[in-house]
Specification:
heterodimer; A: alpha+beta; Penicillin-binding protein 2a (Domain 2); Beta-lactamase; Trypsin Inhibitor V, Chain A; 3 domains; seven-stranded mixed β-sheet; B: mainly alpha; 2 helices; about 0% strand; rod-shaped
Amino acid sequence: MAKPRIFFLFFSLLLAWGLVILRAAQLQILPDSRLAQLARRQYRTQIDLPARRGIIVDRNGKELAVTVPSYSLYADPKEIRSPRRFAWLLARHLGYSAKTIFEKIHDRDRRFVWLARHLRKDFVSSLTRLHLRGLGSVEESYRVYPDNGLLSQVLGFVGEDGSGLSGLELQYDHMLKGQGRKFILERDARGRPLLGDGKIFTDAPAGFDVHLTVDAELQFKLEQELMAAVRMHDADGAMGIVLDARNSDILAIATVPTFDLNRASQVTPGLWRDRVITDAFEPGSTIKSLVIAKALEAGITRPNSRYFCDNGRMKVDDRIIHEADHPFGWLTTSEILMKSSNIGAAKIAFSMGQDRVRQALQDFGVGSRLGVDLPGESPGILQRLPWRKHLLANIAFGQGVTTTPLQVAAAYAAIANGGILRSPRIVSELVNEETGETKTFETRDIRRVLTPDVASTMRLMLTMVTSKQGTGYDARVPGYPVAGKTGTAQKDVPGKGYVKGEYISSFAGFLPANDPRFVIYVAVDNPRHEYYGAQVAAPLFARVASFAVQRAALPPVLLTDNSILKRPKDLPGPPEQSIERIRAMTKVLDAEQQNRTPDFTGLTLRDLLNDVRGTPIHVLIHGHGTVSMTYPAAGAELPKDKRVYVYLEEK
Amino acid sequence: MSRQQINQIKPLVSVIVIIVALFTTVFFQMEVRRMGYVVLRQTVQYKNLQDEYQLKSMRLARILRPDHLQSLAVNRLTMDEPQAGQIIHMSGDTVALRQ
């Protein structure tokens, strides 16, 4: 009886084991896509490498916009066991109230909530060490503008997601962004990726770097001077642009007031606008140069051709045209430019005819875009023909037509460079540091507008504007001949017409006039008290131009005895140390040895630094002039680190 | 050793060779895996250094911003801005053009 039971047990076990072995064989040998997928999910992981946004640099390689890594905190409300405790613990570190954090995380249906963005790595590490369930961090990148407000409207800024929203950040967003990369790698049981090639992580993808033609130092000076002019004249704003006369590269371009790019979302959107490109307004008398240049080109006038300027009052159709300031009698074409006669310019325009005048302005780029690589360029307005005679006269002296500062500067650059209108360039090249790929943007000629001879004649005539008899006398830069034209235009507000008492003062010019290097246009919007271009814009031009030539180390063209320093061997040698100075230095040493603060009162900075040299005393200077007080005070005990704060004051 | 003895040893040697080969294969695979972890640590360190470099570049750019340099020059070094038309330095034996 026992034997059948044994056989039954044996065969049952055999069957069971057989089934197990068959099942194992089936799993091991026969292919099963579902199981293979599950297996792959277990031992594979996806790594996302976001591209680092490219940087923006000036012509000397100075960083204007950079990307730095940052870390952001998020919460998974579903994973949080005790939301109140979670909120209370984090509130102390993040600086929010616990209530604010609790409101974000109390909804258990949400799986992802931002808690704080763009934090420092060490700070986030300290929080993750709290091992709070449901708290996570993700690496992001953060755009920083080290110069705060420098070139603010042109650079633009990015949004929270890192996409460009204005300026160059928007214009070149697709190049700056770059392409992120995704890798699928095997991972171990702890989730660590198994690398065969470490280069996967070392070669982080990056976008293109944007190299500008702008010089940051010149840009800063331009912005500083524009702001000073706004303050001095109580104006609404100011604009300026500096071009390289040879190729129309933009060396500086500014609209003030500026704003801090690191806080762009907190300022009025109106400040984001780059008025040099976007705002077209009546240019005033700066346009006279263009009309007269074309009249010379056509042979209609000559520099010495004479025109009677009706003693300051000319009737055209049913209107009266006046001079801006003084009435004039007979003037030559050169004098019309020099003294800025409206009636003289109108008469030259009449002799040209409306077709020629319109074509002249069109040739110089008025009424069309120059194609600069910045968003929002305005073409300005140049009215269609036919023009009434009064309009023709107005246009001759810059009213009834609108231009942007960029257009005026480019037109003057054409005069400066010998007659070729060029499209101003602000981006010189795009460089990808990772791949080495470079895209270069060459200077683009639009058309020839003047012959070299006429351009040369115009340069000479415009130089006379800055002579003693000219309106641009205050635009002079000692040592360099300056050519240019003042402009004073009534302000035209849309819907209101000309606003009484509101003007735009401007000056457009270039230097050195004999071999132009810089073309500069500055305009001040609605200066109070004084408003003529000669009073407001011309001195502003001179300050900017002076810096530009000093920065470029251009040797002066016009020299006087005052400009020349003696050669070093003719200079007297350094003075010997006087007995008094030696006694003073000894006193400092004695005081230091007694651990007392020496008495520096009345010393100049040079004497102060001389006296403390070689001693352990470390002075921290504030102000300039002579020493007025110290901390610690003279005779008091020296601190352990031997630091003495020294305050200087002008007498 | 006689031929008979060699024939007797052959199976043992074969087994030993196979075992050694298997162990060597496993050892090298483990080494590859270990080197992978080393490379991973190095790449993380490299990335951290890159991040630090970017941060320091940004700080350097902030220090070198023109308004900061100007403030240092005026307040700490008591320097003055050059005047319009001021010639900072000239050298040379010949006198320049007199006006």
